[in-house]
Design brief:
The protein folds into two domains: about 250 residues, Thiolase/Chalcone synthase (Peroxisomal Thiolase, Chain A, domain 1); about 160 residues, Peroxisomal Thiolase, Chain A, domain 1 (3-Layer(aba) Sandwich). It has 13 helices and 16 strands. The strands form three sheets. Strands 1, 2, 5, 6, 7, 9, 10, 11, 12, 15 and 16 form an eleven-stranded mixed beta sheet that branches. The chain has a three-stranded mixed beta sheet with strand order 3-4-8, with no helix packed on it. A hairpin with a 3-residue loop joins strand 15 and strand 16. Helix 3 runs parallel beside helix 6, helix 7 crosses helix 13 and helix 10 crosses helix 11. The radius of gyration is 20 Å and the shape is globular. The two termini are about 25 Å apart.
Length: about 425
């Protein structure tokens, strides 16, 4: 018999607030955490804004050795996983460690440390033949993305399946979907799963400048991220992490855990079309949505809220609007849709998990997050995008979608585990 998967713990590191409570308060209030880049001088770049985390690793419980060893993305993941485990109430030292797994998603891995170390060993880029003796002892760990999952597993004492999922900007959704599948098939009883990215570095800004994907609206950083708005002109880079405790639903019930939501369906597709381009009809995303709903045993009319990818690029916003109409039909016009990227930016591989956190909290509290900075909707984006202010509404089923360079399209359905009591 296929097991059901419960989400019982949430941990977040996000722009505007460290910890799930702070993150959710910012989202409900519709506040933005986007600002001019402060980690380095961004003036040489076309886009100079980002959503940065005010993160102090020592204040968040990391030792000097951990701080020296771990890239910022790994630090985010460990801090988030600790909060998730504590929030879940599960006693990991009372569980068979081989039945506890870890899955961490990331689009760009240890970008910040790799760039910093290259600057050192190449003498600021002046030496073609770098001097490795200037590299830190943990340089190899920065190169290997698996170190992100390793750090979380070591910290939690998890000895079960441990992996990194890297599928670009869908990584945060794909990782949770993969972890849920391990529980369903019986390969693990508990999974610590989520995603992390800390990509705000010169190389990342340069990459997105090259393809003009990020916004050049540098004169007003707080309103630079404008999904679905007529005046939008690119996404705002972000950083952060969200990690969850997933477990067999019956196991969660037996121990009396608070269950935020059930991971009821997940599907992904690739358009096999273009590295950054999207077909306007939304067919590939629609196929992922249809499959996720089928797995959840849900009809289109069961969806109470859609958490959009909503990056703030014209191509994406139109593509996923078409996908929602294709999959939900007339119900798409009656379903609130919003993008929290308007508030916390686009943290690449991490954002899908950060959005799942918002979805689970929306179910718990009966609150639909708003889309900030949405004053004049694009006429081609004609759904209910919950502009500016959060909305109270009972939420039993949420559809969360993600889209990534390379043609990746993913969809997840989260449901209230006792939704029959509506």
């Amino acid at each position: 018999m296929t097991r059901r998967v419960a989400l019982t713990g949430i941990g977040t590191v996000a722009p505007g607030g460290i910890g799930t409570k702070e993150f959710w308060e910012l989202i409900k209030a519709g506040r933005t955490a986007t600002r001019r880049v402060s980690f380095f001088d961004p003036s040489p770049f076309r886009s100079q804004v980002a959503a940065e985390c005010d993160f102090d690793p020592a204040a968040n419980g990391l030792t000097p050795q951990q701080i020296r060893r771990m890239d910022r993305a790994a630090q985010f993941a460990v801090v988030s996983s600790r909060e998730a485990v504590q929030d879940s109430g599960v006693e990991l030292d009372e569980v068979d460690p081989t039945r506890v797994g870890v899955a961490i998603g990331s689009a760009v891995g240890c970008t910040m440390s790799l760039e910093n170390e290259y600057t050192v060993v190449s003498d600021g880029g002046r030496r073609w033949l770098v001097d490795h003796t200037y590299g830190v002892p943990n340089l190899y760990s920065y190169l290997v993305p698996g170190s992100l999952a390793t750090e979380v597993a070591w910290d939690a004492g998890a000895e079960g399946p441990t992996t990194v999922v890297s599928t670009g900007c869908t990584s945060g959704v794909d990782t949770v979907g993969y972890a849920a599948q391990l529980i369903r098939e019986g390969s693990a009883d508990i999974m610590i799963a989520g995603a992390t990215d800390a990509p705000i570095s010169p190389i990342t800004l340069a990459c997105f400048d090259a393809i003009k994907a990020t916004t050049p609206r540098n004169n007003d950083p707080a309103t630079a991220s404008r999904p679905f708005d007529r005046s939008r002109n690119g996404f705002v880079l972000g950083e952060g992490s969200a990690v969850f405790v997933l477990e067999d639903l019956e196991h969660a019930r037996r121990r009396g855990a608070e269950i935020y939501a059930e991971i009821a369906g997940f599907a992904s597709r690739c358009n096999a079309y273009h590295m950054t381009g999207l077909r306007p009809d939304g067919r590939e995303m629609s196929a992922a949505i249809d499959d996720a709903l089928r797995q959840a045993g849900a009809a289109a009319t069961d969806v109470d809220y859609v958490n959009a990818h909503g990056s703030g690029t014209k191509q994406n916003d139109r593509h996923e609007t078409a996908a929602m109409k294709r999959s939900l039909g007339d119900h798409a016009y009656r379903t609130p849709v919003s993008s929290i990227k308007s508030m916390v930016g686009h943290s690449l591989g991490a954002i899908g998990s950060i959005e799942i956190a918002a979805c689970a909290l929306a179910i718990r509290d009966g609150v639909v997050p708003p889309t900030a900075n949405l004053h004049e909707p694009d006429p081609e984006c004609d759904l209910d995008y919950v502009p500016l202010e959060a909305r109270e509404r009972r939420v039993d089923a949420v559809l969360s979608v993600a889209s990534g360079f390379g043609g990746f399209q993913s969809a997840m359905v989260l449901q209230r585990h006792d939704r029959g009591s509506r």
